[in-house]
Amino acid sequence: MRIFGSLAKKVGDLTIKYSNFPESYVKRSYEQVYWKNPSNYPQYPKAQIARKKYRFTTNRPWTSQFRMQNERNLHRKKVFLEPVGEWSFFKGDRVEVMVGKDKGKQGIVSQVIQERNWVFVEGLNTHLRVVGKDKKFPGITIQSEAPLLVTTGVKLVDPETLKATDFEWRYTEEGDKVRVSLDSSRIIPIPKSAEETMDFKSKELYVENVDKDTVSEAATKITFAPKLRTFEMDIMEEMGIKEDRVPAKSYWY
Amino acid sequence: MISNLFKNTVALCMRSQNAIKFAATPLRSIHTTSPANDLMEFFDAKKNWGETNIRVGRSWKTDELRIKSNTDLHKLWYVLLKERNMLYTMEHECADKMRLFPNPERIDKVQESMNNIETVIRERNVAYYQLETGETGERPVEDVVNLFGLPDKHKKSEYYIPKHMNKRWVRPYLEHGFINSAAVKRFYRMYKEKEYNIERKARNREFNHVQHLLKRFPDMDMEKLKAEYPNVDIEKAKRSKKARGHFMPKY
Asked: Quick one: signal sequence residues (chain B) (predicted)?
């Protein structure tokens, strides 16, 4: 009997939302299970031998880069994460950088890595990287953004004063949960680009697969009518199957 | 076999949020194609064979299935089943031919849809039986103490003779003796010890973790910390030597 509860909650909700994959797929794509007892046999306890600690970086859990970074014998130092409560930084948010050489500058969040409390701000907090360097070629220098911690590295920008502000999650009268700036009490709306996934920029822009997807017309059509029948009775009637045999007396134990 | 609106479409429902967009496009809800009832139905359409990316929508949600009639769910189940068979076949075939199986998450999507259909149908049947008989109509499950002295769920089965007449059922149970034998008691004691140790280690691990967090982030929001680690005595952790620290690590 082992506890694997710690393993279950590792990947952030935003990551799963971004991937557009079922959670079960994300889980099975990054998990390293070395041994698992056969399931549904009473003689075997529900035991498995699996890797427990994973290093999360910008490499997404379902990619091969992630797998390479977490190779079987590769173990890295534990990363301590400051608890942030409810996640409140989304892609497309305007934030002010609070640390580093771009301190005080404002930018747009371009990527969120929830597993590390990281956000990347477009064009800010950058360093130069040389790629493609070899003996004959000096390489190309590119600017790449470094991650910023959401706890200390960035602050949301107030839409009215356009200055960095603290905020709070509150409910509107309609019952929607919104971020409210503590400076001007204005709602900081969640940007449209927060719903971007690997497959589409926004839900309206999703291009359906004609062969595979059910069209929304068919999916949203209401065909249910309440009847005093079980599923089986309904299907039997639909198919014209008549069953008038009386089942023999039976005992459940 | 299937000749309704789901014909030739697959289980994977597209985002219903798109409803607005598709309301404007011409209606194409009914498909009819000649069925090809041969073994090639286990394979994907030929044009998808070399594909590296076969992108599909998400799985059906329970709320979308609740508005569908029983007949639709029945048909959808077989659409999904065929799709799942096709995906397993393609996965096997790709492995056989040393190719990469494109978009393996489709299997999970189909499976999730099938699970959701089962949930919805079960809900409907339970509602019927509870209205008519006052019981759920589900397979009865009893809380028992099993042969190891551990609490267990016994899923009851249906027999045509009562329990006291059923020798085949009674005998193996009696052979093992009573569950409060010395061996069972010993096993149970050690099992409890093991369980307790796991719990204790988890508790200590959490406490240590909080100490290290306090050392690294002294200005942290204590309420959030309390919310994330409700079982840790934070005041005690603050007083400890480990939480103090004489230098700030880099991370």
From this structure: none
